[in-house]
Protein backbone atom coordinates (compact mmCIF):
# COMPACT_ATOMS: atom_id res chain seq x y z
CA UNK A 1 0.00 0.00 0.00
CA UNK A 2 2.86 2.38 0.81
CA UNK A 3 4.41 1.67 -2.59
CA UNK A 4 1.13 2.56 -4.25
CA UNK A 5 0.91 5.95 -2.50
CA UNK A 6 4.58 6.61 -3.16
CA UNK A 7 4.07 5.87 -6.85
CA UNK A 8 1.05 8.21 -6.97
CA UNK A 9 3.04 10.96 -5.21
CA UNK A 10 5.97 10.63 -7.62
CA UNK A 11 3.70 10.68 -10.67
CA UNK A 12 1.86 13.73 -9.35
CA UNK A 13 5.10 15.63 -8.73
CA UNK A 14 6.40 14.66 -12.16
CA UNK A 15 3.30 16.11 -13.81
CA UNK A 16 2.99 19.25 -11.66
CA UNK A 17 6.57 20.52 -11.98
CA UNK A 18 6.62 20.87 -15.81
CA UNK A 19 3.22 22.62 -15.77
CA UNK A 20 4.37 25.20 -13.22
CA UNK A 21 7.64 25.79 -15.08
CA UNK A 22 5.73 26.26 -18.35
CA UNK A 23 3.25 28.68 -16.74
CA UNK A 24 6.11 30.70 -15.27
CA UNK A 25 7.93 30.70 -18.62
CA UNK A 26 4.77 31.89 -20.41
CA UNK A 27 4.25 34.64 -17.85
CA UNK A 28 7.84 35.85 -18.26
CA UNK A 29 7.53 35.73 -22.06
CA UNK A 30 4.26 37.71 -22.01
CA UNK A 31 5.82 40.24 -19.66
CA UNK A 32 8.87 40.71 -21.91
CA UNK A 33 6.70 41.06 -25.02
CA UNK A 34 4.49 43.68 -23.37
CA UNK A 35 7.50 45.55 -21.99
CA UNK A 36 8.96 45.61 -25.51
CA UNK A 37 5.68 46.96 -26.90
CA UNK A 38 5.55 49.72 -24.28
CA UNK A 39 9.18 50.79 -24.22
CA UNK A 40 10.43 50.30 -27.78
CA UNK A 41 9.44 52.98 -30.27
CA UNK A 42 10.00 50.49 -33.11
CA UNK A 43 7.51 47.99 -31.66
CA UNK A 44 4.87 47.09 -34.23
CA UNK A 45 2.41 45.59 -31.74
CA UNK A 46 0.59 47.16 -28.80
CA UNK A 47 0.04 44.16 -26.51
CA UNK A 48 0.69 40.45 -26.28
CA UNK A 49 -0.75 37.43 -24.52
CA UNK A 50 0.64 33.92 -24.21
CA UNK A 51 -1.69 30.98 -23.77
CA UNK A 52 -0.35 27.46 -24.00
CA UNK A 53 2.10 27.48 -26.88
CA UNK A 54 0.48 30.38 -28.74
CA UNK A 55 1.44 34.05 -28.67
CA UNK A 56 -1.26 36.50 -29.72
CA UNK A 57 -0.23 40.07 -30.46
CA UNK A 58 -2.53 42.99 -31.17
CA UNK A 59 -1.56 45.62 -33.71
CA UNK A 60 -2.99 49.07 -34.36
CA UNK A 61 -5.63 49.11 -37.12
CA UNK A 62 -3.91 51.98 -38.93
CA UNK A 63 -0.95 49.74 -39.82
CA UNK A 64 -2.97 47.03 -41.54
CA UNK A 65 -6.38 48.33 -42.62
CA UNK A 66 -7.24 50.28 -45.79
CA UNK A 67 -5.66 52.30 -47.38
CA UNK A 68 -2.62 50.13 -46.59
CA UNK A 69 -1.55 48.19 -49.70
CA UNK A 70 -1.19 44.38 -49.69
CA UNK A 71 2.62 44.45 -49.88
CA UNK A 72 2.78 46.95 -47.05
CA UNK A 73 0.56 44.76 -44.91
CA UNK A 74 2.65 41.66 -45.59
CA UNK A 75 5.89 43.53 -44.90
CA UNK A 76 4.45 44.79 -41.62
CA UNK A 77 3.48 41.23 -40.61
CA UNK A 78 7.03 40.06 -41.31
CA UNK A 79 8.36 42.82 -39.04
CA UNK A 80 6.00 41.81 -36.24
CA UNK A 81 7.08 38.17 -36.66
CA UNK A 82 10.77 39.14 -36.45
CA UNK A 83 10.25 41.19 -33.30
CA UNK A 84 8.36 38.39 -31.53
CA UNK A 85 10.81 35.71 -32.69
CA UNK A 86 13.74 37.70 -31.28
CA UNK A 87 12.10 37.75 -27.84
CA UNK A 88 11.15 34.07 -28.13
CA UNK A 89 14.79 33.15 -28.80
CA UNK A 90 15.74 34.86 -25.55
CA UNK A 91 13.25 32.63 -23.72
CA UNK A 92 14.03 29.45 -25.64
CA UNK A 93 10.44 29.02 -26.85
CA UNK A 94 9.11 28.06 -30.27
CA UNK A 95 5.48 29.11 -30.10
CA UNK A 96 2.93 29.86 -32.80
CA UNK A 97 2.19 33.55 -33.47
CA UNK A 98 -1.25 35.00 -34.12
CA UNK A 99 -1.56 38.66 -35.17
CA UNK A 100 -4.88 40.46 -34.56
CA UNK A 101 -6.34 43.92 -34.87
CA UNK A 102 -9.56 45.36 -33.47
CA UNK A 103 -11.36 45.87 -36.77
CA UNK A 104 -11.04 42.52 -38.52
CA UNK A 105 -9.78 40.16 -35.83
CA UNK A 106 -7.24 37.53 -36.80
CA UNK A 107 -4.95 38.85 -39.54
CA UNK A 108 -2.13 36.33 -39.68
CA UNK A 109 -0.81 33.14 -38.18
CA UNK A 110 2.68 31.67 -38.34
CA UNK A 111 4.56 28.82 -36.75
CA UNK A 112 7.99 29.45 -35.20
CA UNK A 113 9.76 28.70 -38.49
CA UNK A 114 7.78 31.46 -40.24
CA UNK A 115 5.32 29.42 -42.30
CA UNK A 116 1.72 30.54 -42.16
CA UNK A 117 -0.94 32.69 -43.72
CA UNK A 118 -1.89 36.37 -43.99
CA UNK A 119 -5.43 37.62 -44.56
CA UNK A 120 -5.85 39.87 -47.60
CA UNK A 121 -7.17 43.39 -47.17
CA UNK A 122 -10.58 42.28 -48.44
CA UNK A 123 -10.79 40.28 -45.17
CA UNK A 124 -12.12 37.23 -47.00
CA UNK A 125 -9.19 35.39 -48.49
CA UNK A 126 -5.92 34.23 -47.05
CA UNK A 127 -2.50 33.96 -48.63
CA UNK A 128 -1.58 30.43 -47.63
CA UNK A 129 1.99 29.15 -47.42
CA UNK A 130 3.21 32.65 -46.62
CA UNK A 131 6.83 32.92 -45.44
CA UNK A 132 7.22 35.49 -42.66
CA UNK A 133 11.03 35.44 -42.79
Major sheet: size, sense and barrel closure?
6 strands, mixed
Percent of residues in β-strands: 15-25%
Mean pLDDT: 81
- The unreliable regions are none
Count of spatially separate domains: 1
Distance between the termini: 57 Å
Number of strands: 6
- Give the helix/strand class: alpha+beta
Roughly how much helix do the residues carry, as a percent range?
Answer: 40-55%
Helix and strand succession? HEEHEEEE
Number of helices: 2
Organism: Limosilactobacillus reuteri
Protein name: DUF4430 domain-containing protein
Keywords: Signal
In short:
The chain is α+β, with helices and mostly antiparallel strands. Helices cover 45% and strands 25% of the residues.
Describe the protein's architecture and organization.
Residues 1-23 form the signal peptide. The structure is a single chain. This protein has 133 residues and is an alpha+beta fold. The protein contains 2 helices and 6 strands; from the N terminus they run αββαββββ. It is elongated.
Structure keywords:
133 residues; alpha+beta; six-stranded mixed β-sheet; 6 strands; elongated
Topology overview:
Elements: H1 2-39, E1 47-51, E2 54-58, H2 70-91, E3 96-101, E4 105-110, E5 115-119, E6 126-131
Parallel strand pairs: 2-3
Antiparallel strand pairs: 1-2, 3-4, 4-5, 5-6
